[in-house]
Automatic annotation (TrEMBL):
<comment type="similarity">
    <text>Belongs to the leucine-binding protein family.</text>
</comment>
<dbReference type="InterPro" id="IPR028082">
    <property type="entry name" value="Peripla_BP_I"/>
</dbReference>
<dbReference type="InterPro" id="IPR051010">
    <property type="entry name" value="BCAA_transport"/>
</dbReference>
<feature type="signal peptide">
    <location>
        <begin position="1"/>
        <end position="31"/>
    </location>
</feature>
<dbReference type="InterPro" id="IPR000709">
    <property type="entry name" value="Leu_Ile_Val-bd"/>
</dbReference>
<keyword id="KW-0029">Amino-acid transport</keyword>
<protein>
    <submittedName>
        <fullName>ABC transporter substrate-binding protein</fullName>
    </submittedName>
</protein>
<dbReference type="Pfam" id="PF13458">
    <property type="entry name" value="Peripla_BP_6"/>
</dbReference>
<keyword id="KW-0732">Signal</keyword>
<dbReference type="InterPro" id="IPR006311">
    <property type="entry name" value="TAT_signal"/>
</dbReference>
<keyword id="KW-0813">Transport</keyword>
<feature type="domain" description="Leucine-binding protein">
    <location>
        <begin position="34"/>
        <end position="362"/>
    </location>
</feature>
<dbReference type="GO" id="GO:0006865">
    <property type="term" value="P:amino acid transport"/>
</dbReference>
<dbReference type="InterPro" id="IPR028081">
    <property type="entry name" value="Leu-bd"/>
</dbReference>
Length: 394
């Protein structure tokens, strides 16, 4: 799937009917020679709502940037490819966006396996990558001498510390179990959770893996229950997370579930059954319960641009919008700092950002060569689904 999004100060973007994404239109004469930003994300399938949220966040930021004259006097244009949650298709998309479309920065999408597959290619081509979702620790901490992978999102090793802390302090867990998706994202979190448990001197009841297409995970959960698990750490996206909660319901096992943010990426409250509301998920941002003037203004702008959005409940997952919105503004600042669209110059431009008052927070020197993640544990909040809306909880 190929989509082109052209955004100018005349707001020539129209929302496409299928996903509420923007479809490209012809640029007016005064706005020729745009700076192209690529996006590789899940724009179809079970994670499409998250791909939609990321796209909306980028487009909203582009509207604001272009209304102020663009970047280096040129408008920004978004060109997107659907990776269909497939690392091979993600690499193909990156090649197309860089070599055929001339994208100067690539925004990654949702899946850690896709983003990890892109690391060698991105660092080889020296076209900066910006991640607004995938949380795998090695995406940015990849050991490259010249690292072009940046992120405005959660980071597994930091999330895992927060998950363990919550299970121990709020639920009194002493022997939690792990339920992890069987892919590099699950592996990243297994390392992080085990390290966090060890740091607190805690045991674990075992590690069980699940597949994306599993429809019954009672056997895995039964093994954890028999091993004495008093809480569960859940790391999976919408589909398998929903199966975990339905399996718990069938078992009648009322155990606390402390989760990474995967369930937030789609129709989890609908698919997960009665127990979906019990999952405590980490997030980096919510519109609900947020009294920030910037949050209120951004929500109003979203309603205006996307008429199907009527309230905060309609922007689930808000993290996709907020992370992508802030990431696009930071990317524009990096290009301005670079004074060109040359990849190495833009990379340095990220390091040269002093501060930016964003939607999630005010960023102060958000990127350095030693740390290319703009968000940290202080930016995390725990939430749950209540009547289909992601609500902050204590």
């Amino acid at each position: 799937m190929t989509k082109t999004f052209a955004v100018t100060r005349r707001h020539v973007v129209a929302a496409a009917a299928a996903l509420g994404l923007a479809a490209g239109t012809a640029l007016p004469a005064a706005a020729q020679d745009p700076i192209k930003i690529g996006l590789i994300a899940s724009l179809s399938g079970p994670s499409a709502k998250s791909g939609e949220a990321i796209t909306r966040g980028i487009l909203l930021a582009m509207d604001e940037i272009n209304a102020e004259g663009g970047v280096l006097g040129r408008p920004l244009e978004l060109v997107a490819r659907d990776d269909e949650n497939n690392p091979g298709k993600g690499i193909t998309a990156a090649r197309e966006l860089i070599n055929r479309e001339g994208a100067v920065v690539i925004f990654g999408g949702l899946q850690t396996p896709v983003s990890l597959a892109l690391v060698p290619y991105i660092n080889q081509t020296k076209v900066p990558f910006m991640g607004p979702w995938a949380a795998g620790t090695p995406i940015t901490k990849n050991g490259a001498a010249e690292n072009y992978m940046f992120r405005v999102s959660a980071v597994d090793e930091m999330v895992d510390v927060a998950l363990v802390e919550r299970a121990a302090t709020l639920h009194g867990a002493t022997k939690p179990g792990l339920v992890l998706i069987n892919n590099p994202w699950g592996e990243s979190n297994e390392k992080g959770i085990m390290a966090a448990l060890e740091a607190k001197g805690m045991e674990n009841a075992g590690v069980e893996t699940i597949e994306a297409n599993d429809v019954d995970v009672v056997p895995q959960l039964t093994r954890l229950k028999d091993a004495g698990a008093d809480a569960l750490f859940l790391v999976a996206n919408v589909g398998p997370s929903a199966q975990v909660m339905k399996s718990l319901e069938r078992m009648g096992w009322d155990v606390p579930v402390v989760s990474h943010w995967g369930p937030a990426g789609g129709r989890f409250s609908e698919l997960g059954g009665p127990r979906a509301k019990d999952v405590e998920m980490i997030q980096t941002f919510t519109f609900s319960g947020n009294d920030s003037p910037k949050a209120a203004a951004t929500l109003e702008a979203l309603k205006k641009k996307f008429p199907e959005i009527q309230s905060a409940a309609d922007v689930t997952p808000a993290v996709g919008i907020a992370n992508a919105y802030d990431a696009m503004h930071l990317t524009a600042l990096a290009i301005e700092n670079a004074g060109s669209t040359d990849g190495p110059a833009i990379r340095q431009g990220f390091y040269d950002i002093d501060s930016y008052e964003g939607l999630i927070k005010t960023y102060e020197t958000p990127f350095t060569p030693e740390d290319q993640d703009a968000l940290g544990p202080e930016d995390y909040v725990f939430t749950r689904f209540i009547d289909g809306e992601i609500i902050p909880i204590d």
